[in-house]
């Protein structure tokens, strides 16, 4: 019997799960992020706050959305944003996007798509930049686990500069399990690491006729051991010198370019 005053284990676990869960709504800010969300028919839009100047600049997108904005004085802008946010007088409350399941989004369907998997990449600015590169180079999806990854936030959306509305960003339960599912779909999985045993461009050339998944680790720790073991090969980007190091978003851009030019 539990001691008096002590919460049952199931209550503690439920409260812990609730604390770790992501918010049900997201506040986007900045002209680019708000405009693209307003024009996205798949985005559930809840509340729009604009200054008079932002309302003029976003007039076409507001009309497309059918929303009625709350017009506020720029000196009394009361959207619940971080005080350091460069909101440009535009804030939009939305529900997170639902891109469907891994199998629905990533099934090859007779093509040779490229997907990108992120292992503990938690910086929203890095993930936002990666989404921009993924959109430019035609990645089928960017995939990251629910835990230890950057959730959909205003900061991520602003860095993505609209790509968040168009580039599928799938949040999955377990990275290794999803990698195995991709293998079953026919994907060749390449982990990226500066100390990889082979060259990324060479591996992409060999696998140009099949779906490919590129796996990026967090800066510093890199790929976790289980992630590394689940890859088919671990490769490095060719550097001009004896050793080179790239920010994870830059490395993702290089990898996606290499993959796209061979397809």
Keywords:
263 residues, alpha/beta, 7-stranded parallel beta sheet, 11 strands, 19% strand
SSE map:
Blueprint: H1 9-20, E1 26-29, H2 31-38, E2 45-50, H3 52-57, H4 59-65, E3 70-71, E4 90-94, H5 102-106, E5 114-119, H6 124-136, E6 141-145, H7 154-160, E7 169-172, H8 175-184, E8 188-192, E9 198-199, H9 200-206, E10 212-217, H10 225-230, E11 233-236, H11 248-261
Parallel strand pairs: 2-3, 5-6, 5-10, 6-7, 8-10, 8-11, 9-11
Antiparallel strand pairs: 1-4, 2-4
Helix pairs in contact: 6-7, 6-11
How much helicity do the residues have?
25-40%
Classification by helices and strands: alpha/beta
Percent in strands: 15-25%
Average pLDDT metric: 90
**Estimated radius of gyration:** 21 Å
Our count of helices gives: 11
Major sheet attributes: 7 strands, parallel
Low-pLDDT parts are 9-20
Strand order of the largest sheet: 7-6-5-10-8-11-9
SSE pattern: HEHEHHEEHEHEHEHEEHEHEH
- Give the overall shape, derived from the CA principal axes: elongated
Alpha-carbon distance between the termini? 63 Å
Total E-strand runs: 11
Summarize the structure.
This protein is an alpha/beta fold. It is built from 11 helices and 11 strands.
